[in-house]
Each structure stands twice: as structure tokens, then as C-alpha cells.
């Protein structure tokens, strides 16, 4: 387009130059003719006028001829320029389309026709918008045409075109308005096929998007890998901490097992001289009944009774029948430990907790964790330790001496005493709140004098035991000897009977047992019978009350207390009234 404009300008300039050179020459020719006329002899005015007219005619003719020459040359130059323009227009590598104001195709070059895939003569007279692919593109082209008409200079836009064969073309349009004398003018539009460029751009964009996606994916993978590495490092640290903790726990368990082993060896060496309570009396049967009730549970048990009645044996029986039987039962004798050592024995101590404590000691409650602790003679515990014991009973936690760290344990507590704790509370020697915590399930051990029918079995048991221990072969126990033993009050209970039988086995000669002890503390017969009746009445009262509480004070029916006790409901009601039992 720029080249066509430049060639048109060159042709116009050459024309102006040629006309400027011819004008002086014509004037010189006219002046010579006038001078020749003036040199001739004088003539009449009429002749002069005729000559003047002739001269002007000649000059005018000369000017006309000159103008005709100019016109001819101009036409020739115009044809040459038009041919050059047409050649440039038609053979241009860029598609050119001339449009009128309505967007109608007036002319198109070969490149434009090839681009649209239609012969040139078939394009003239068609609306250019018919080749636009979509409505959005047609709106863009309409605004483009309006801008071209209203503004000076080149206007550009991009639209999608569809060729005759249906091929999609990304057209890049550059348009300029061409004014024309005597008419509105036309729009000259150049079209460049940007399909390849657009495809390259789209491919580049796709490649860029793919690269971005790959980068995001790789970044995400690296992020995940980094997070995984961080987690692994943290897990490694946690594993190290867990390993350290496990090692500490293993060491603690090792110390615990060693302490437990040492303790059990001491327990075995110092255990009581009998394995089980021997007897079938009603009083003892009721004790066994109470043991069967409470053993499977984790309830705290308080064993009451005189010294030597077998409270420790009952404690072991409860432990063996419980769910904790696989763990140890740790025994603490509150009478055998000095007051200044009982706290460290119960709760343990750290190294250096007090003068002389050169090693850490695990307390009895830690040893009993998961098992049972038997606090024998609990009534002898000092008042200042009863508060600490109360905390363990309530919350299962304590601190070692010399350590601020709280230790939690899961321990079943069985306590025993030969004292009247209610009397001790009144005297200010025992905490009332601790008593209520310990007295969850009390079991009273009957003294030997209240179950004398068990003495023959006990005598046989002890004779067999000491025969084996001492190496004797005593086989006979006379009725006279049994009567003697049955009439004694036995203030020392079973432990005293065991000692008497051991001495008798040592001193007896032959196969008959000879008891040589002097028994000077026989009570009156009436007194002994009265005491036994009272004890049996107390046992019956406790047993009936226990069953009533278990059945929710229901007497009759399938789940009533009468059925469990094997009594007629009316008989049970009579015994309830006789025993003074009432529902609180």
C-alpha cells in the first residue's frame, strides 16, 4: 500500500515538471510571430485586426496542441501508473480488500481471494462479514469499520474468518479510509493470515501451561517430600524420645521386679506357719461367704478381729480369688516398721531424700501397682501418715520422699486391725474420713473360742505339719486331749493353738500327742456359751442385712432375700424383727 502511494506521487511530480518546461516555449513561439508581423509594412487597421485575431488564433491553437500533448502524456502515465498499481495490488503477498461504507467487497487482490478460498469475481459484491466465523467477531469488525470511518490513520483488529472450504483463519486486519472526490470513498483493508502464528502462540501457551503445571506438580511433590521428610525427622525424634522413655520404663520395671522379687523372697521366708484357714464352723463359713462376695471386685476390704484369727490368710484368699491374682500382694505391717521409716516404705524415696538415704527406694504402693496391698494393723499407723494414706486410697496418687513428681498407681487395698477403730476415732487416734474409706466392705474374723468345733481339724492339720517338720510320727490325739483344748479360752487364737501343738509334738513320745501346757484362764461355762450365742447372733444379723441390701430390701419373689437365704418369707420377717434390722 505504501509503495503504491509513493509511485503515484512520483508520476504526479514528473507531470508538473513537464508542464512547467513546455509553457515558456509556447510563449516564445507566439512572441516571434508577433515580432515578424510588426516588421512588415504598414497596413490598414482592418488588416491589423485580422492579423491580430489570426495571431491569437494561432497562439490558442498552439496552446491547444500543447494541452493535447500534455493530456496524452498524462493519460499514458496514468495508464502506466494504474498498470503498476494493479500489478502491485494484485501480486502483493498480503491480501488486500477494498470495501465500501456498508462493508461490501468492491475489489480484492489475488492473495485476498486465495486467503478466502474464492475466485475474485465471485467475491465482488459480497458482504465481508459473511466470512467472519462468529457473532463476536462480526461485532468486533463492525466496531473496526466504524473506527476507520471516524478516525484518521491505520486501525487494527483480529477476527476469525472461515474460508470457502471451512478452514478457520486467524485474520489480522489493518484498515485505512481512502477518500475520493465527488463521493463518500472506500476502505482499504489488508489481511494477514495469522493462523500459523496463532497456532505457534497457542502451542507456546500450551507448552507454557504444561510447564507451569509440571512445575506446580513438581513443587507439590517436593513440598510433600519435604513435609514427609519433616514428619520422618519428627517421628525419628519422637521414636528416640519414645525409646528413651521405654528404656526408662524398662529400667523402672526392672527395678520394680528386682524389688518385688526381694520382697517376695522376704515374704516367703517370713510367711505364716499355715497356708489356709482350717475349719467348717458356721462362723467360718460366713467369713468364706463374705470373701466370695467381695473377692472378684476391686472394693476396699477391712478385716476386723483379734490377733491370731487369720486376717492375713483371709487377705491372701481374697487376692487369690480376684482378677489381680497374677500380680503380687504386697504386705505392710504397720506395727513392725519404725514410725520414721514407714512413710518411705509405703511411698518410696529418692536418693538423698534424708540423711543416710544413699539410694533410691521403690515404695510398697509402687510394688503393688496392678495388684493388692495388705495394710496389716492399720490402727497402728501414725496420724501424720493417715492423711497421705487417705490421698492414695481416694485418688491413687502420691509422691516419693524427695521428689515433686506425682506417681499414679492402681492398687486394691485390704486393711486389717485388731483395734476398735470407732473407739480410736473418738479418742482422736484415727481419722474418721480414712475409716470410712477403708470400711467399704468389713469382714469380722471370729475368734477361736467362737468356733471350737474347728479345733479337731486344726489339731490334725498342725500335727501333720510339725510331724513333717520335726520328723515325728504322731498319729493319735485322744478325746481327753481334744476336750482339754476345746475348753480353753484361747486368747491368742489360732496362732496360740499352733504354738501349743508344736511344743506338744516336740515333747510327745510315741504315737500319741501329749499336751503338757497348763491352761489357767478357762472362763465359766455359762460365759463361754453366752459369748458364742452373741457372736452367732451378730453373724446372722450381718448376713441377713447383707442379703437384704443386695436384693434392694426385697423379701419375697424370684430375686427376694428369702429365696437366697433358703427361708420362708414369714420366717425371714420374724428374724429381721428379732435382730432389730431396719432400712435406713
List keywords for this structure.
584 residues, Beta-Lactamase, five-stranded antiparallel sheet, 56% helix, rod-shaped
Structural notes for this entry:
This protein has 4 domains: about 1-90, no CATH class; about 95-195, PAS domain (Beta-Lactamase), CATH 3.30.450; about 270-445, P-loop containing nucleotide triphosphate hydrolases (Rossmann fold); about 450-580, Orthogonal Bundle (Helicase, Ruva Protein, domain 3). It has about 575 residues and is α/β, with parallel strands linked by helices. The protein is rod-shaped. Residues about 1-5, about 270-275 and about 520-525 have low confidence and may be disordered. The two termini are about 120 Å apart. The longest helix is centred in the middle third of the chain and has 75 residues, at about 195-270. It has 19 helices and 12 strands. It has helices spanning about 1-40, 45-90, 110-115, 120-125, 135-150, 195-270, 280-295, 310-320, 340-345, 365, 385-395, 420-425, 430-440, 455-470, 480-485, 495-505, 525-550, 560-565, 570-580; strands at about 95-100, 105-110, 155-160, 170-180, 185-195, 300-305, 330-335, 370-375, 395-400, 405-410, 410-415, 440-445. The chain has a 5-stranded antiparallel β-sheet with strand order 2-1-5-4-3, sandwiched between helices. Strands 7-8-11-6-12 form a 5-stranded parallel β-sheet. It has a two-stranded antiparallel sheet with strand order 9-10. A hairpin with a 5-residue loop joins strand 1 and strand 2.
